[in-house]
Design brief:
Structural class: mainly alpha
Order of helices and strands: HHH
Distance between the termini: 88 Å
Oligomer: single chain
Strand content: under 5%
Shape: rod-shaped
Largest sheet: none
Helix content: 55-70%
Radius of gyration: 39 Å
């Protein structure tokens, strides 16, 4: 089995302990039920993987629309640049000389 570092001596030791605990009559039944359990688990996991592979995936969107925060930031920058071009009222550059 890949992933389990069990050598032949370890496997023999495990089987000997199982034989002592369960006895010679019960050992084949336990082995059979363990095999069925593992088989059912593998079948269920492969069915689950197949179902996950068949589910449609949503198409990838190129880019998300700008958020409201980004739009506010852009509009405030535009207002700041417009306000920087217009001098405040009542300054010497005002041709009518109105004070605010």
């Amino acid at each position: 089995m890949p992933g389990l570092p069990i050598g032949p001596l370890e496997l023999l030791l495990i089987l000997a302990i199982a034989l002592l605990i369960l006895g010679p009559g019960k050992l084949p039944e336990v082995g059979s039920s363990m095999g069925k359990t593992i088989r059912e688990f593998r079948k269920a996991s492969s069915d689950l993987q197949d179902a996950a592979d068949l589910s449609p995936r949503p198409p990838a969107s190129p880019s998300p629309p700008p958020t409201a925060t980004a739009q506010l930031h852009e509009s405030s920058e535009a207002q700041d640049s417009v306000q920087a071009d217009v001098p405040p009222r009542g300054t010497p550059s005002d041709p009518k000389g109105h004070a605010s």
